[in-house]
Fold:
Amino acid sequence: AKKMGRNNTQFYQPAMNEEALERVRIESALRNALERDEFVLHYQPQLDLQSGRVVGMEALIRWQHPELGMVAPGRFIGLAEETGLIVPIGAWVLRTACAQAKAWQDAGHGVLRIAVNLSPRQFSEPKLLAAIAEVLRETGLPPSCLEIELTEGLFMNDVALAVELLHKLKALGLALSIDDFGTGYSSFSYLRRFPIDVLKIDRSFISDIGEGDEAAIVVSIIALAHNLKLRVIAEGVETAAQLDYLRRNGCDEIQGYYFSPPVPPIEFERMLIDGKSL
Ligand code: C2E
Ligand code: CA
Ligand code: CA
Ligand code: CA
Structure:
């Protein structure tokens, strides 16, 4: 009876059991998705505000689930990170994005930059450097066309180690950008210590444009970036008013629904062929 009682205790934690089960299910589903080639990349154009032209794109992953349809990254990236599956998934993203960018360059669409998101887990993967170098070599994409997007949280752990790794990444010839700038545990000190090339102003600040004082933050980030000789990209630009404001205040590039959401490769290529610009 006692033994049964112990077994029964499991039933008193149904939430935990179900959660654990759900995680195992999603983990194996993610593993299958990778094997079955169910992930796809969509691309969102980045535009230069002076020329008004597409100068690059951010690769954003989606899961083309046989039953659920198109699943947004917000629903699986966190779990992929926790389980470590983000490492093989991220490797797939990097290879696919670089190959695509090279193909578009070869098709005569000019020197396009490709931005790829890197999760903290990938950053602490010992083989990261070699993996990136290999992708660049195999795809033939000029390293200067690859931009790696990092988040501020990354700089919190072992600072000395992070600085060293970032310098090694830079030595490959690629560019480093800080994603969602201003939302993390921002510390200005890392801006001087880390070899960063680009700041991406988080869209929460962009949506504040036109609402009084709030836009002061946007202007300050642009000035900060330029004083540090960094390029600055505004993300989440949705309106003409936001665009005008950013242009007037010297922002370098924009990305957002105003010009285009992330789109499948075919649609992105059509945009390039049509020469669609701001
Ligand atoms: P993120 O890197 O900050 O990417 C920008 C997100 O904002 C994208 O959401 C994009 O679709 C969305 N967005 C772009 N323009 C606008 C706009 O004008 N208005 C609004 N409201 N949203 C806009 P998405 O594609 O759902 O990606 C969400 C997050 O998932 C990304 O945020 C990134 O953190 C993560 N993610 C996506 N792809 C990858 C990947 O390949 N690897 C890793 N590690 N993370 C990824
Ligand atoms: Ca990003
Ligand atoms: Ca972002
Ligand atoms: Ca974000």
In short: Strands lie at 39-48, 54-65, 69-71, 113-117, 146-150, 175-181, 198-201, 231-235, 253-255.
